[in-house]
């Protein structure tokens, strides 16, 4: 079963290692992991997609909470949510095939971001299914290179993931955690 | 107030109540050692950094206070890994401080550089790399907070040499740790109601008492709970001491080498009330057949333990003492006479197989040594064991009525733990009568710490259960590898002469009748005495649940009649 966790962590060196190491040594499987900044300074947001059975889900959550730098963990799988993946696909294109490829790009509401004599770069955002669909359609023309970000997710409405009520990340305490303290690797 | 990072370290340690640290100096930690001389700290020089970590661990387990170990970078730090892993598995609160090469050298493979925060990531509750003097106070304060709160555990602080040497404004208050708590745990009223209903309705309940009861100081509430509900108590290895062994409701230790009646009772139970324990594979036998008739209530401070190994019916997350205090007034007064009588019958059947009841044929059995040690010390000694057969015999034959009088490496099973952990325990509790019970294998792993014993003037006693084998491994070879004793016969030096070389009194015991006089001689000597007990070489710990078997499918000691051949 695919489970999507949103994990808010303190933006500190080594936090990614801690999360990845925990998941590895407990034998859980990551399908994708993305990380980036959030609306709050000092807080990073991870979207972790895991392949796990139902009984493991609360244990993954509980284990993540044991990491000191983890502020909040949320399993958004059961909630109505928006899921997005971004892909850049470099596809071989000749004079004759370029037109058809561009029609596909339009049909998928993707964008051309680079055109060169022998190839195109297509940028697409959407659910993984949609991206997989475009990749399938482009494959016959020759997919030369592909880069995907992995899933980012956000639950719909205002109910979830509101960090306003959460304790501030400890990095806010300037004296306590200046740049002189870092965390592993 | 401007202080060096090294001074800030000691300022913080003193404020945490630290009076003793165990360590070994070296280049990258020298500034901290130099600054130490200005503070009221007793430093115990060990002979190996592993010893320092086990001493801090023994110190912590004997008192509940945080133990502190200190070492240099590189090999000093990596030598701490076994001690950290031991403390992690047994939830023991220790703080390890390591020196690190200068911050500008990090990543350059400098002399004695190791990425120790990377190395210790999976065996610490948390760790810190501090590269500036201004970061020392916050790291130390938070390390102590983390080590002792929630589920306790080890924390490592790696401090670069320049962070120790440079100065920073010391503001203790501003460096206060921020609470690390999981937000929004739901109220557990429903779980409490369900737990009470299950407990009140159970006819054949068993309490599984674990280390959490000791860590959470819940002994009084626990005893009241067991007595009110009249539920018999089975203990994990680390739970020993949480409930008086002499109590009528005490069954004894469960698990792989648990008493037969305990394991059978668990398999027949209709309810298990697990308190501060984690269903380790050594206590469950194969999960598929574990306690098949029982509902399971699990009270545990670490939410990640609920449903980890065994499927739980009611999980209550919390400090076991608070949970018991809440259950206690609400739970019905129990009457389980029929169930207790059933267990008594199981017990009676086991007594004839007890090695204590075997006819004396002039053999010295380890179990006899432990039994006599228990008698001669009135059951009140603080016993620190190593790992292996002697550890199981200690758990079976030394009956602990007093909390925190058995210190042993349970989860990691660290050979070499006993002697250093006992030194730590003795430093923590100078008035306690401390006995090391150790095998000939494990003792040789860390016996260099005998020099620490002498240099620090420590008065403990050491009982070596010497059978000339790595006994527990030999036992597995006997049962499961057709007695092919690969690498288990063990040559040892003359331990009495070893003791003599260190200026310690050594006694050699080969006969049962000499056990108690030797123990009494050791007790009366006001210094450390080492006793080398030459015991039966191929003796076996019974009962034994083979790996992968159901908990009540035990290999039992052959009945005494069969063993003497008299029934043929």
Structure in words:
The complex is a heterodimer of chains A (185) and B (568). Chain A has 185 residues and is an alpha+beta fold. Chain A folds into two domains: 2-78, ACT domain (Alpha-Beta Plaits), CATH 3.30.70; 82-148, Alpha-Beta Plaits (2-Layer Sandwich). Helix content of chain A is 23%, strand content 38%. In chain A, strands 5, 6, 7, 8 and 9 form a five-stranded antiparallel β-sheet that branches. In chain A, a hairpin with a 2-residue loop joins strand 6 (111-116) and strand 7 (119-126). Residues 171-185 of chain A have low confidence and may be disordered. Chain B is of the alpha/beta class and 568 residues long. Chain B has three domains: 2-175, Thiamin diphosphate (ThDP)-binding fold, Pyr/PP domains (Rossmann fold); 189-347, 3-Layer(aba) Sandwich (Rossmann fold), CATH 3.40.50.1220; 357-547, Rossmann fold, CATH 3.40.50.970. Chain B is 37% helix and 16% strand. In chain B, the strands form four sheets. A six-stranded parallel β-sheet of chain B has the order 3-2-4-5-7-6, with helices on both faces. In chain B, helix 7 links the parallel strand 6 (126-130) and strand 7 (155-160). Strand 10 (181-182) of chain A pairs antiparallel with strand 6 (126-130) of chain B, so a sheet runs across the interface.
Largest chain-chain contact? A-B, 30 and 37 residues
- CATH topology heading of the largest domain in chain B: Rossmann fold
Oligomeric status of the shown chains?
heterodimer
Q: Count of helical segments of chain A?
A: 4
Percent range for β-strand residues of chain A = 35-45%
Q: Structural class of the helices, strands and pairings of chain B?
A: alpha/beta
The Rg value of chain B, from CA coordinates, equals: 24 Å
Q: Main β-sheet of chain A, in a few words?
A: 5 strands, antiparallel
| CATH-scheme architecture of the largest domain in chain A | 2-Layer Sandwich
Quick one: biggest sheet of chain B? Answer: 6 strands, parallel
CATH class descriptor name of the largest domain in chain A? Alpha Beta
Helical segment count of chain B: 24
Helix/strand-derived category of chain A reads alpha+beta
By CATH, the topology of the largest domain in chain A is: Alpha-Beta Plaits
Number of domains of chain A: 2
* CATH architectural category of the largest domain in chain B: 3-Layer(aba) Sandwich
């Amino acid at each position: 079963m695919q489970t999507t966790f949103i994990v808010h962590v303190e933006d500190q060196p080594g936090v990614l290692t801690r999360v990845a190491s925990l998941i590895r040594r407990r034998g859980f499987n990551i399908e994708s992991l993305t990380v980036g900044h959030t609306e709050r300074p000092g807080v990073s947001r991870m979207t972790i997609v895991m392949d796990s059975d139902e009984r493991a889900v609360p244990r993954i959550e509980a284990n993540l909470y044991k990491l000191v730098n983890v502020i909040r963990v949320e399993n958004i799988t059961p909630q109505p949510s928006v899921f997005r993946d971004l892909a850049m696909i470099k596809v071989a294109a000749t004079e004759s095939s370029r037109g058809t490829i561009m029609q596909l790009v339009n049909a998928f509401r993707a964008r051309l971001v680079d055109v060169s004599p022998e190839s195109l770069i297509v940028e697409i955002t959407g659910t993984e299914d949609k991206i997989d669909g475009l990749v399938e359609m482009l494959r016959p023309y020759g997919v030369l290179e592909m880069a995907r970000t992995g899933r980012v997710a956000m639950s719909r409405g205002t109910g979830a993931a509101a960090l306003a009520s959460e304790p501030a990340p400890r990095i806010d305490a300037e004296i306590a955690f200046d740049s002189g303290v870092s965390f592993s690797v | 107030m401007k202080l060096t990072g090294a001074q800030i370290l000691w300022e913080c340690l003193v404020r945490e109540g630290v009076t003793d640290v165990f360590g070994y100096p070296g280049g990258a930690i020298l500034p901290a050692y130099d600054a130490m001389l200005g503070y009221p700290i007793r430093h115990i020089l060990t002979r190996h950094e592993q010893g320092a970590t086990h001493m801090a661990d023994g110190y912590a387990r004997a008192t509940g206070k945080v133990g502190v170990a200190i070492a240099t970078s590189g090999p000093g730090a990596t030598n701490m890994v076994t001690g950290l892993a031991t403390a992690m598995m047994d939830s023991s609160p220790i703080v390890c401080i390591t020196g690190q090469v200068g911050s500008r050298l990090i990543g350059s493979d400098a002399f004695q550089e190791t990425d120790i925060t990377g190395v210790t990531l999976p065996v610490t509750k948390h760790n810190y790399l501090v590269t500036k003097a201004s970061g020392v106070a916050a790291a130390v304060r938070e390390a102590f907070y983390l080590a002792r709160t929630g589920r306790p555990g080890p924390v490592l602080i790696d401090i670069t040499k320049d962070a120790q040497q440079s100065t920073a404004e010391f503001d203790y208050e501003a460096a206060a740790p921020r609470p690390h708590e999981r937000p929004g745990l739901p109220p557990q009223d429903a779980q409490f109601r369900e737990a009470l209903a299950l407990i009140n309705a159970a006819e054949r309940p068993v309490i599984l008492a674990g280390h959490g009861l000791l860590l959470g100081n819940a002994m009084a509430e626990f005893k009241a709970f067991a007595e009110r509900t009249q539920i018999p108590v089975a203990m994990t290895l680390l739970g020993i001491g949480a409930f008086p062994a002499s109590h009528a409701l005490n069954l004894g230790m469960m698990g792989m080498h648990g008493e037969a009646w305990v394991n059978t009772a668990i398999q027949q139970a209709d309810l298990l009330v697990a308190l501060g324990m984690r269903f380790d594979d050594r206590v469950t036998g194969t999960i598929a057949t574990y306690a098949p008739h029982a509902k399971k209530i699990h009270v545990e401070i670490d939410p990640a333990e609920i449903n980890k190994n065994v499927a739980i019916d009611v999980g209550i997350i919390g400090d076991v003492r608070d949970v018991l205090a809440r259950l206690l007034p609400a739970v019905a007064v129990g009457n389980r006479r029929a169930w207790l009588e059933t267990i008594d019958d199981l017990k009676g059947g086991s007594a004839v197989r007890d090695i204590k009841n075997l006819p004396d044929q002039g053999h010295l059995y380890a179990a006899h040594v432990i039994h006599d040690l228990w008698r001669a010390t009135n059951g009140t000694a603080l016993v620190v064991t190593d790992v292996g057969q002697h550890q199981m015999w200690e758990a079976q034959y030394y009956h602990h009525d007093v909390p925190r009088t058995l210190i042993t490496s349970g989860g990691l099973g660290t050979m070499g733990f006993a002697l250093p952990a006992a030194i730590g325990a003795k430093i923590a509790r100078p008035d306690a009568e401390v006995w090391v019970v150790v095998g000939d294998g494990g003792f040789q792993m860390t016996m260099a710490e005998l020099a620490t014993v002498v240099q620090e003037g420590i008065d403990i006693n050491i009982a070596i259960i010497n059978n000339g084998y790595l006994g527990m491994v030999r036992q597995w070879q006997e049962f499961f590898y057709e007695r092919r004793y690969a690498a288990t016969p063990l040559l040892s030096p003359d331990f009495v002469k070893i003791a003599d070389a260190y200026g310690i009194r050594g006694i050699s015991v080969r006969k049962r009748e000499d056990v108690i006089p030797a123990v009494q001689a050791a007790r009366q000597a006001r210094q450390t005495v080492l006793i080398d007990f030459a015991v039966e070489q191929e003796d076996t710990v019974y009962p034994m649940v083979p790996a992968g078997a159901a908990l009540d499918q035990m290999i039992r000691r052959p009945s005494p009649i069969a063993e003497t051949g008299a029934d043929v």
